[in-house]
């Protein structure tokens, strides 16, 4: 093998190594971002659970009517955010929307047949998931719609 070929092969191997390091770094960065977002969402869900528990206790102790407690709990959740564009919407176990912070026209609608751009029955899947810790959906952000 000539000197030029040896030098070219060393340079090619260096480039391949740099590309591999770049790909690995990008993958690790993506994984870290997904985990951070999941942690933010988990914290927000814990706060939402605490809020609903508080209002349920007020009803149980007869300090507030059930309807008033539901209204105030949904108002509290309407303002909840995570990250730069994350929010909470509330639906019941039958995929009926109880609160959506950006689309109030959806409230009271049965969304069990709604299909997202990934082909999933988004709200039905959420209703079925119940207390499972994580899941993924493909949705339009408020700025997208």
UniProtKB/TrEMBL annotation:
Subcellular location(s) per record: Cell membrane
Domain Single Cache: from-to ranges: 30-124
Keyword Transmembrane attached: yes
GO CC annotation, single: plasma membrane
Membrane topology: Multi-pass membrane protein
Lipid biosynthesis recorded as keyword: no
Domain of life: Bacteria
Annotated TM spans: 7-27
Pfam family, one: sCache_2
Keywords attached to this entry: Cell membrane, Membrane, Receptor, Transmembrane, Transmembrane helix
SMART domains given in the database record: Cache_2
Record-given protein name: Methyl-accepting chemotaxis protein I (Serine chemoreceptor protein)
Origin organism lineage: Bacteria, Pseudomonadati, Pseudomonadota, Betaproteobacteria, Burkholderiales
């Amino acid at each position: 093998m000539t000197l030029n070929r040896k030098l070219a092969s060393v340079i090619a191997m260096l480039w391949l190594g740099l590309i591999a390091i770049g790909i690995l770094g990008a993958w690790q960065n993506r994984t870290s971002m997904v985990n951070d977002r999941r942690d933010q969402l988990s914290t927000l869900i814990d706060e939402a659970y605490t809020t609903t528990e508080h209002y349920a206790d007020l009803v149980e102790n007869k300090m507030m009517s059930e309807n008033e407690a539901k209204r105030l709990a949904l108002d509290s959740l309407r303002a909840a955010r995570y990250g730069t564009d994350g929010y909470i919407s509330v639906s019941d176990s039958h995929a009926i929307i109880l609160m959506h912070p950006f689309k109030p026209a959806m409230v009271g609608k049965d969304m069990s047949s709604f299909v997202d751009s990934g082909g999933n029955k988004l709200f039905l899947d959420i209703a079925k998931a119940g207390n499972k810790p994580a899941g993924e959906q493909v949705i339009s952000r408020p700025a997208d719609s």
